[in-house]
Amino acid sequence: MNDFAVRLQFEGGKMLDFSGPADITKETTEAIVNAANSSLLGGGGVDGAIHRAGGPSILQECTKIASKIGSLPAGKAVLTGGGRLAAKYVIHTVGPVYGRGGSTVAETLASCHRESIRIADDHGIRSVAFPAISTGAFGYPVHEAASISVPAAISALLAAAHLQHLRFVLFDRQMLQAFVGAFEKLHRSGSISPLHIERKSP
């Protein structure tokens, strides 16, 4: 899907889109990010939707990875093929459960974005779509998650050698507003300075 609510353009042709309400399983980016659980064996929410849409080959690859590494720690990420998805790849990352991990929970959520982008960049992937990691069953408040996810993703995107296009694909309008609001706060503070901002009317 190529629609967006807000698009940021940075130096070097890099772009960040905020899109929603939208379904990440329909994204045509080269890779999509799955908010997985540590077993890598599927679950509910985004995780279940990606496995259902992508078919059994994704679970087969995840099972092979799990047999080698055991559980995937929160904040880390692994890559599989996309099965029947339009996206060629799925990057599986485990977000933190809100209220567990004390002061490290925010760093773990930021790490999900950095690690996913690092893996994409290591594989020469040029476009990636993210959901709102940890905001479903893992209980992270949307506005808090957005304030961590957006700056982490932007800094990793700008440092990447190959990745050019990043999208946040938000499930509903509340999430979209929270993530756009997190960007706007950063922009007002001078923390990020896109070359151009394009907004579409709702």
Total domains, how many?
1
| Gap between N and C termini | 16 Å
User: Which regions are unreliable across 5 or more consecutive residues at pLDDT < 50?
Assistant: none
CATH architecture label:
3-Layer(aba) Sandwich
Radius of gyration: 16 Å
- Portion in beta strands: 15-25%
Mean pLDDT across the residues is 95
Q: What structural class do the secondary elements suggest? A: alpha/beta
What name does the CATH topology carry? Leucine Aminopeptidase, subunit E, domain 1
Number of strands: 8
Q: Order of SSEs, N→C? A: EEEHHEEHEHEHE
- Proportion of residues in helical segments: 25-40%
- Overall form: globular
Major sheet: size, sense and barrel closure?
8 strands, mixed
The CATH fourth-level homologous superfamily: Leucine Aminopeptidase, subunit E, domain 1
Strand order of the largest sheet: 4-5-3-6-7-2-1-8
Number of helices: 5
CATH class: Alpha Beta
Your description of this structure?
With 202 residues, the chain is α/β, with parallel strands linked by helices. The protein has a single domain (6-199), classed as Leucine Aminopeptidase, subunit E, domain 1. Helix content is 38%, strand content 19%. An eight-stranded mixed beta sheet has the order 4-5-3-6-7-2-1-8, with helices on both faces. A hairpin with a 7-residue loop joins strand 4 and strand 5. Helix 3 (105-122) packs parallel to helix 4 and helix 4 packs across helix 5. The longest helix has 18 residues, at 105-122.
